[in-house]
Design goal:
303 residues; alpha/beta; Rossmann fold; 43% helix; binds S-adenosylmethionine
């Protein structure tokens, strides 16, 4: 099966506009995933010089390399955390780039096919590492964290009002036997939340799973660090596009773009998907795109 067919890239047209692709330009897709946005860039601007595709999930990179095989002379795929993009560029003797895209979050491949317990609809080992060499798995947190810390993690990263009850149930359950699969955890969380408060729109374990995934992959720390170091890789006038999927991330992007004296935010409000895109791709429902431009040196000193 062609795995690239299962992930539909969000806000593709808007990303292409935001990146303002130019012939001869070098662009970085820092979350190349299944290569959808990278492919769209190469198709939209066949004369661009290169797309550097970075991802820390080697399974995703394999899919991207198959998808982008037709452009192998113009693509460089690297397994790395996106916070290390400056080092990746240095190692490849690239002094500056004309655009950077981050589409943070999970790909459909990771959710549905990686077998790493990202989904509450499956019974898989409770792993949740996007980078399979990461040192902490979700099962480590669920089975070892003190109850209070676990409640705080689920509350803050999942914005889950039932966090205390969920943490208490987890601790009770793991006292009998360790919690090892996504299915076990999903059922336990569903039982911890009173039935009358189950949402009709989302599975009761959605927020808990989001919280664990964010913690395992240190998603907010990585995004924060990337927002501070990646503008340094942009050429003057270069574009920085970030797609995020929940308010905690969007807030980081909004303030980083506003507070970086070298950046000019081009989007006052985040760009979101239209009804048609959401109807054909439910992942797009919560996607928010913000775009900033690297200021020119003289513009920088005037502002
Ligand atoms: C939503 S998917 C990207 C999909 C891609 N834009 C496409 O169109 O196919 C997000 C990707 O970002 C990767 N990712 C998340 N955090 C990362 C990080 N800190 N460093 C590198 N890759 C990361 C994930 O492994 C995943 O493959």
């Amino acid at each position: 099966m062609d795995n690239s067919s299962v992930h539909v890239s969000v806000l593709s047209e808007e990303v292409l506009d935001g990146l303002d692709l130019r012939p001869g330009g070098i662009y970085v897709d820092g979350t190349v995933g299944m290569g959808g946005h990278a492919e769209a860039m190469l198709k939209a601007c066949p004369d661009l010089k290169m797309v550097v595709g970075v991802d820390w999930d080697d399974g995703a990179l394999e899919i991207a390399s198959r998808r982008l095989a037709g452009w192998h002379e113009k693509t460089l795929l690297v397994k790395s955390n996106f916070v290390n993009i400056p080092e990746v560029l240095l190692a490849n003797e690239i002094d500056g780039v004309d655009g950077i895209l981050l589409d943070v979050g999970l790909s459909s491949y990771q959710l549905e096919r990686s077998g790493r317990g990202f989904s509450f609809n499956t019974d898989e080992p409770l792993d949740m590492r996007m980078d399979r060499f990461g040192s902490v798995m979700a099962s480590d947190l669920v089975n070892n964290m003190p109850q209070e810390g676990l409640a705080e993690l689920i509350r803050s990263y999942g914005e889950e009002r039932w966090a205390k009850r969920i943490a208490r149930r987890i601790v009770e359950q793991r006292g009998k036997a360790p919690i090892l699969t996504s299915g076990e955890l999903a059922r336990l969380v569903a039982r911890a939340i009173p039935r009358k408060f189950h949402s009709r729109r989302i599975h009761p374990a959605t927020r808990t799973f989001q919280a664990l995934r964010i913690a395992v992959n240190r998603e907010l720390d990585n995004l924060k660090q990337a927002l501070s170091v990646l503008p340094g890789c942009l050429n003057e006038g270069g574009r920085f596009c970030v797609i995020s999927f929940h308010s905690l991330e969007d807030r980081l992007v909004k303030f980083a773009f506003r507070d970086d004296p070298g950046l000019e935010p081009l989007t006052k409000r985040p760009i979101t998907a239209g009804d048609q895109e959401v109807a054909s791709n439910p992942r797009a429902r919560s996607a928010k795109l913000r775009v900033a431009r690297k200021k020119r040196k003289n513009q920088h000193s005037l502002s």
